[in-house]
Amino acid sequence: MADKLSGRVWKYGDDIDTDRIIPARYLNTFQKEELARHCLEDLDPAFAGRVQPGDILVAGKNFGCGSSREHAPLALQAAGVSAVIAASFARIFYRNAINIGLPILACPEAVAGCETGDELELDLAAGTIYNKTRDKTYQAAPFPRYVQDILNAGGLPAYVKRRLAQNKKSETPFLARIAVLKGDGVGPEVVDAALLVLRQAEALAGRALFSFTEYLVGGAAIDREGTPLPPATLEGALASDAVLLGAVGGPRWDSEPPERRPERGLLELRRALGVFANLRPVRVLPHLSGHSPLKPEVIGRGADILFVRELTGGAYFGAHERVEVRPGEEQASDALLYTTSEIRRVVRLAFHLARSRARAAGRRARLTSVDKANVLATSLLWREVVEEVAAAFPEVEVRHLYVDACAMRLVAAPQEFDVIVTENLFGDILSDLGGALAGSLGLLPSASLGEGGPGLYEPVHGSAPGLAGLDKANPVGAILAAALMLRYSLNLPDEAAAIEAAVAATLSEGIHTPDLASAAGQSVGTQAFAWAVAERLERFWPRTRSAAQA
Asked: To 5 degrees, how large is the angle CA 529–CA 216–CA 180?
């Protein structure tokens, strides 16, 4: 992007929120042409048809207030707007605009001194705004150097790619680069436990396998950097081969505005990594089945289920509207949207996983697709795509279940299931139900995968701030998340299986953390449990294929 811009002014008033920049009914698309066509449609119907590339939008106070969706700056940029000047901006809009490379300047004097049709010249490096029509110059705060670099690159993703290209020669190619995001509460403790086991894996391999770099995220990042996802963290995550996360959040940050909540950083990280599928394996070991709420005759033989949940579509990402249809009567709606390509990519991944799990276990591959095709159009499309993809995997046995029937069968006969694939909302509910089978959230890992980029690996449990610093948190979920990282991002399936076997052996020998206090055996702390796993890892470490050869 050039440091100097010039264009014609379009001026509007105060409190222009994101729904007036791009109406909520168009939030089901990221297509630039469509966003441009409807930009400012409800505020100024003539805008989209008359705006010219390079024009500058000028507004009053609190521009971009409202929702945190990135559609608003994308719509302005797609329409041809080269910059936005306002008396003040909503913080989340400011960040979203910079992230896509749209310059925005806060300058109340310039806003007061110009009108629609004026010609402006902007010097972004200096922060000056020159009104050619009125021969007046105004001074805004110049951008910090790193923000200027992001704008010059055309946005944060392009900036990160440029930085990675510059640093590529200095990287050590044979070490897997792991971005370590310990987070909040018990996050640092359980991640440290996982790192201990990974370092034992290096000792058994006879060489260094990983390069660990720590970054701030969540509440810890808010305290230190003022934002839940600092630029350095995002850059480090995108530059990594995998991201290992602890947990984020806690009551300490509950009073933060939505755009500064710790969970917002996690959502932004997932979006930036491009992950579209969440994998949550639920394995109930027979000797721990007593912790399950199910009867022994149902769960006593254990269970081994892999939930594959679509992450980027569905009701969570459609338009959300709430209107008063008449005095005292409100109406709310949530758009449930899916495209064929969104469904196909996660379904194909689920078929591949079903096939690989079956081969490893020496049995027939089974996949259950969950929908509500008797009611929902999206579910009907989902089922059609599953059938289309199934044709390429004849060795996989496919079963379709309605979501209510699936929920019933999960608690009545969990052994019926191998891989379950479903859409976002159903997956959110069913995977939590499946997690209840194990009896403790501390036992469960998860992986979020995209297409070729770094995967995100984390335990299912939250930050549990009441346990922080007490050495009582269950690290099994974090250790097993590290095993998933070896399997899916680092191509070390044998080493991943060894860690999983070491965890199972430790638990089967009666060594457990306090959350499993009703189990027979010895209750130990977080770090002691990790050491117990590390000690047993040698029993299962692969001998025929060394990690040094991976």
From this structure: 45
Residue 330 CB contacts under 8 Å (≥ 6 apart), including other chains: 322, 323, 324
List, for residues 281-298, the tens digit of each pLDDT value. Answer: 999 887 777 778 888 888
Determine contact, residues 382/329, Cβ cutoff 8 Å.
no
Query: pLDDT for 475-491, tens place per residue?
Result: 999 999 999 999 999 99
DSSP E strand boundaries for 45-126: 56-59, 83-86, 104-106, 119-123
Facing residues of 52 across strands? none
User: Which residue in 373, 421, 379 sits closest to 396, CA to CA?
Assistant: 421
Residue 430 zone, left/alpha/beta (φ > 0; ψ -120 to 50; rest) = alpha
The type of residue at 486 is L
Query: What are the distances in angstroms from CA 357 to CA 306, 327, 350?
Result: 9, 57, 10
Residue 111 vs residue 317, higher pLDDT: 111
pLDDT for 190-244, tens place per residue?
999 999 999 999 999 999 999 999 999 999 999 999 999 999 999 999 999 999 9
Query: Catalytic positions, please?
Result: 316, 372, 404, 428, 432
Q: At what angle do helices 145-153 and 91-100 cross, to 10 degrees?
A: 50
Q: Is the pLDDT score of 369 beyond 50?
A: yes
What is the rounded CA–CA span in Å between residue 336 and residue 372? 12
Residues 6+ apart with CB under 8 A from 494: 542, 545
Tell me, letter by letter, the H, E, C secondary structure of 404-471.
HHHHHHHHHCHHHCCEEEECHHHHHHHHHHHHHHHCCHHHCEEEEECCCCCEEEEECCCCCHHHCCCC
| 504-540 per-position pLDDT tens digit | 999 989 899 998 866 566 889 999 999 999 999 999 9
Q: What angle, 0 to 180 degrees and rounded to 10, lies between the N-to-C axes of helices 493-508 and 187-205?
A: 120
Q: Which two tokens stand for residue 90?
A: 């909503």
In this predicted model, which residue has the larger pLDDT, 312 or 358? 358
